[in-house]
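Reminder: ligand-aware prediction takes two inputs, not one.
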Amino acid sequence: MNNQIMLVTQIQFKIDTQENSGIQHDEIQWLLGTYRMGRHILGREFPVAQQSEQFVVFTLIPAEDAFDTATLNKYIQERLQKLSSVGLSQPIYDILGKDPSESSACVCKESPALILFTTYLTLQSPLKCAACFSPIPLYRIPRFPSEDFHDIISWQSDYQSCDSLQMNCSTGERFAIRQLSSYDSSLSQRGLKICNVIEELTGRAVYYYLYRGTGKSHKLELNRKCPHCEGEWLSKEPWHKVFDFRCDKCGLLSNIAWSFKP
Ligand SMILES: [Zn+2]
Ligand SMILES: [Zn+2]
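Here is what comes back for the chain with zinc ion:
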């Protein structure tokens, strides 16, 4: 798997028989919805151009193998089968080029552990390889019992909403910071549950990150303990330049308050 990076991709659906174009468009949207929930395409907006003999959709995909048949869940396969019944061809994929704004996907043969981590800025998978800290396309991990990634997608969306409130330093700032930083918050508990499911499916440790924006002093920051087991968790060197704290027992990560970082 070489040259993995977010790719701008065009998907064509040829109109084999002229039928109600509204129904054809709806069928394409249903398919795109299932692709999105399986994380084969990223983001939420998928411009569709209707032309005389085809529909053309523009999407971002996490890596070149995004449409490999083996990675497609049963909902996607069902939707693909319905295309012909509304007079559309099977999708034709055309990778147009890299999206230079995002980093490459993980190419490690095997990731020793994983990290659930996202920010308000990124469209990429929130599952990072603990070796290279690059994103791992979700369709490459064993399938969830639900077949799609609804739980991860909604957690990521809520995390990014809180991160935006935190960045904007105004409406809802305190609420958002608590959700991002506290072990007991609803957001963290949902994230930790996702980590547990991925651990069970992959047999690998999955770490969860607790944000830390401000603190009282640098010294007190260094003395912070793991918020779950209250054990020591300060690392000699920050892991991936971000995580000063790491508790292997609880699978938790955090940082020295950003306000005290050099
Ligand atoms: Zn990796
Ligand atoms: Zn701990």
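The longest helix spans residues 150-168. The domain at 7-98 is CATH 3.30.70.100 (Alpha-Beta Plaits). We will return to this case in the review session.
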